[in-house]
Amino acid sequence: MNCIFCDIVSGRSDASVVHEDDDVMAFMDIRPWTSGHLLVVPKRHASGLADLDPGDGAAVFAVGQRIATALRHGPMRAQGVNLFLADGIAAGQEVFHVHLHVVPRTAGDGFGLRGMPKSPSRVALDQTAGVIRSSLT
Ligand code: 5GP
Ligand code: ZN
């Protein structure tokens, strides 16, 4: 299987590593959105959320949370942090090995997600909630 993040995890490709344990690795994104932007990945390959072991997902989030604290309170002095995960092409996923983006933020850094918030009625919200609720497995 050809996977650039598996190559990094196995040491076949270089990365600037911030954290490594038995299950998770975190390294700098080579095309950062802001200075300090990094990626947290499970060591076991999962192309998307559907095949990600929930324990690995929890471990990835825990490391992301820990790194966010370091970014906020360490020398990077971030004023805020965004966590972002793209699952699927329509969501902007380009590398098909699950990864959590950890993006340090400062006021006026120019980074942002563009969205067009709508104002659905409570009835519409309840109906959508029901559809999603009925598909929970
Ligand atoms: P996605 O769009 O899939 O959520 O994000 C993929 C991210 O992986 C991008 O931000 C991109 O810059 C980063 N990336 C792509 N190839 C490499 C690589 O070889 N090494 C590292 N460290 N990051 C990569
Ligand atoms: Zn992989």
TrEMBL record:
What is a GO molecular function of this protein?
catalytic activity
Q: Which domain of life is it from?
A: Bacteria
Q: Which residues form the active site?
A: 99 (tele-amp-histidine intermediate)
Alphabetical list of PROSITE patterns matching this protein: HIT_1, HIT_2
The record places the motif (Histidine triad motif) at 97-101
GO BP field: nucleotide metabolic process
* InterPro entries attached to this UniProt entry: Histidine_triad_CS, Histidine_triad_HIT, HIT-like, HIT-like_sf
Positions of the HIT domain? 4-112
Protein name (record): HIT family protein
Q: Can you name the source organism? A: Rhodococcus wratislaviensis NBRC 100605
